[in-house]
Amino acid sequence: MSALVNNGDTVGLASATGPSLGEAEFTFLREFVLQHCGISLGEHKRQLVQGRLLRRLRALGLSGFAGYCDLLRRDPASELGELASCISTNVTSFFREMHHYDMLVDELLPRWLEEKRGGGRLRIWSAGCSTGEEPYAIAMVLAEALERTGANVDAKILATDLSPQALEAARKGMYAIDRLGGVSDARRKRWFLRGEGAYDGYALVHPRLRELVSIQPLNLLHEWPMQGRFDAIFCRNVVIYFDKPTKQRLFSRYAGMLESRGYLFLGHSESMYGLSEDFDLIGRTVYRKRT
């Protein structure tokens, strides 16, 4: 759930912190980010983007934004993930928008596991997984449903994001205790290992959850290597920052990746209204593929 940097962020004046982001460089960056990430950067984001990218310039040993733009022109693929990390803020938590998980527990997982009992295939995609809280929360309710029903089902969760830093954190699966606020006491005991010594104050996700979750880099605007279809896709708090054509293309592609009458979960402030004829709204930001 990598989200575009919010309007409340502030940065210091360029003269006090480093080189200035000129008009030509900002125009290029706006066009580059729109093309490769589907995100429209307004003029009011200029100073904010400047402040975020100054850290990247220092890491690369570049003296100015012109050199950074040249790097993107020469080898866009190598730097795209880092750029996305710089201009985005990963806002996420365990069991955020709990009504989605309630639907999984009460309705969808019992039905799917019954239908697929005896060796069927169940696939869920967390698209824009950020630092991993969402796919691991899905894994908790999935693992509990598998234990409860004893169903013999090939169940996996694909978790993807563009940000290298977010993916690294997701792969580690280690979270400060105060990040577990959305997790019940019972689930904390069942699905987390408490850190000791140097890791005091942290919790590590249980190996069983790691077995269920595959974490991979993916740009939603580029080619998708996945072959099979998904029973559900979670893409929450991601598309709100895309322009309308990008949203329309993405929803169409999601429809093509879902099983017949599969489910798409969006964020609390996102909607498909006027953007797709492939889905019906059936709950709070829950959509079902029509065929």
Automatic annotation (TrEMBL):
Its EC number is 2.1.1.80. GO terms for biological process: methylation. GO terms for molecular function: protein-glutamate O-methyltransferase activity. It comes from the Bacteria. Residues 14-291 form the CheR-type methyltransferase domain. SMART domains: MeTrc. It catalyses: L-glutamyl-[protein] + S-adenosyl-L-methionine = [protein]-L-glutamate 5-O-methyl ester + S-adenosyl-L-homocysteine. It is an enzyme of class 2 (transferase). Keywords: Methyltransferase, S-adenosyl-L-methionine, Transferase. The keyword Protein transport does not apply. InterPro entries: Bact_Chemotaxis_MeTrfase, Chemotaxis_MeTrfase_CheR, CheR_C, CheR_MeTrfase, CheR_N, CheR_N_sf, SAM-dependent_MTases_sf. It holds the Pfam family CheR_N. Methylation of the membrane-bound methyl-accepting chemotaxis proteins (MCP) to form gamma-glutamyl methyl ester residues in MCP. This is Chemotaxis protein methyltransferase. It comes from Luteibacter jiangsuensis. The lineage of its organism: Bacteria, Pseudomonadati, Pseudomonadota, Gammaproteobacteria, Lysobacterales.
